[in-house]
């Protein structure tokens, strides 16, 4: 993929925070949550386009599957930006959040990491 990114999660988080500081964008969970929902809708739209095509005559349906997958990736990236902002507002990293989720799932489904 063009412009392959080798950033670690911490580097992505720092890039988001640096961008927010440079652009003077606040960490505001209410605003960022609205943006996150908006971006999730755009991911959904691209997934629908991949599987079903466009539903409206005013939408471009001439992209091939590789181009649509690139759009899906772009929209998922758009989801990460406000998600990182929300986590950081509460002093959490994405790794912190995933670890909490992983422990919850292991407890819920009685997964023993040593037996995986």
Tell me about this structure:
The structure is a single chain. This protein has one domain (10-91). It has helices spanning 9-23, 29-52, 65-89, 94-108. It has 116 residues and is mostly helical. It has four helices and no strands.
Strand content: under 5%
Helix content: 55-70%
- Sketch the topology as an H/E string, one letter per element: HHHH
How many structurally independent domains? 1
Low-confidence stretches: none
Look at the structure and give the mean pLDDT.
90
Strand segment count:
0
Biggest sheet descriptor: none
The total of helices stands at: 4
Note the main attributes of this structure:
single chain, 116 residues, mainly alpha
TL;DR?
The chain has 116 residues and is an all-alpha fold. The chain has helices at residues 9-23, 29-52, 65-89, 94-108. The protein has one domain (10-91).
Fold blueprint:
Elements: H1 9-23, H2 29-52, H3 65-89, H4 94-108
Helix pairs in contact: 2-3
